[in-house]
Specification:
By secondary structure, the chain is α/β, with parallel strands linked by helices. It has 12 helices and 8 strands. It has a 4-stranded parallel sheet, with helices on both faces.
Length: about 290
């Protein structure tokens, strides 16, 4: 009888211990913030600020996917609907995510005070990630007041990793001398302006971005600028395929005009910092 009673007590104790452990784990899991970003480099910033207090899911993680043309699935909609916060670029770049009925959205364009119709490639503005990190620390702090200090500390730590980019930009600006450069599209423009360069073919670049061929006069002017060596270099968005751009790149090579290759999405095996640093370094190398 005593053995049976002892066994029963052990069984009850084990059950209570398991229930308590499971309850604590469930509570701990539900206590974590669930954040979704449309673009992986914004996900990188969100993870840095969240630390161990949440999980981040990025919807676009392949460099081969055009964010403009991304088609959300039922699975995508479910991921967004469960998020405590959805971070997207805004300014018309990834507006499809607003149709997925997320609970709360944060537009990077709003953080940067950029409206639709203005240059949407906000991640190439070197101040964007710093401002986003600070804003996320504030937003996460509102959602989890007890971790407010941790979020601010994480944001400060993350911003220090961006210092290398600022240093490279400063080096470039010392010798840019307000020279003119040409671009295939206005993807890299924010960085170029911070470097102290002037865009010589904005009308040409806008036409390319909109998917139409630049006018004959725009093409002719750019060709003359290249032949006359009136531009310091040409910036090519390698993810855009155009016979006009291919011919311009060939003309640059023939006339010893450097071609800086950039991408619109994060390359594989790169972080936000290493991605931009490589492209900035390519610009710096043209000054040697």
């Amino acid at each position: 009888m005593r053995k049976k009673l002892f066994s029963f007590i052990l069984l009850v104790s084990a059950f209570l211990a398991f229930f308590t452990f499971d309850h604590k784990n469930t509570a701990a899991a539900s206590d974590k913030l669930n954040v979704v970003t449309t673009l992986d480099f914004y996900g990188e910033t969100a993870k840095a600020v969240l630390g161990d207090h949440g999980i981040v899911t990025s919807l676009i993680t392949s460099p081969n996917v055009d964010p403009h043309d991304f088609e959300a699935t039922t699975k995508t909609a479910k991921i967004v609907s469960k998020a405590d916060l959805v971070i997207y670029n805004g300014a018309g770049y990834d507006s499809w995510v607003k149709k997925l009925n997320g609970k709360k959205y944060l537009s990077v364009a709003d953080v940067m005070k950029v409206k639709e119709g203005q240059n949407e490639h906000l991640w190439y503005d070197p101040t964007t990630m710093e401002k986003l990190a600070d804003r996320l620390a504030t937003e996460f702090g509102k959602m989890q007041p007890k971790n407010k200090a941790a979020f601010k500390k994480n944001a400060t730590k993350y911003k220090k990793t961006l210092a290398k980019l600022t240093q490279t930009l400063d080096k470039i600006k010392q010798n840019s001398n307000n020279q003119k450069v040409a671009v295939s599209e206005p993807v890299f423009d924010y960085s170029l302006k911070k470097m102290g360069y002037k865009i010589a073919n904005s009308h040409f670049a806008k036409a390319t971005e909109e998917g139409s061929d630049p006018s004959y006069s725009d093409i002719k002017k750019l060709q003359n600028d290249i032949k006359g060596k009136k531009i310091a270099f040409f910036v090519q968005n390698t993810q855009s395929d155009s016979s006009v751009i291919k011919n311009i790149v060939e003309l640059c090579k023939e006339n010893n005009i450097p071609v800086i290759k950039v991408t619109e999405t994060l390359p594989k095996n790169k972080t936000y910092v290493t991605w931009l640093q490589d492209e900035y370094q390519a610009v710096l190398d043209t000054q040697k």
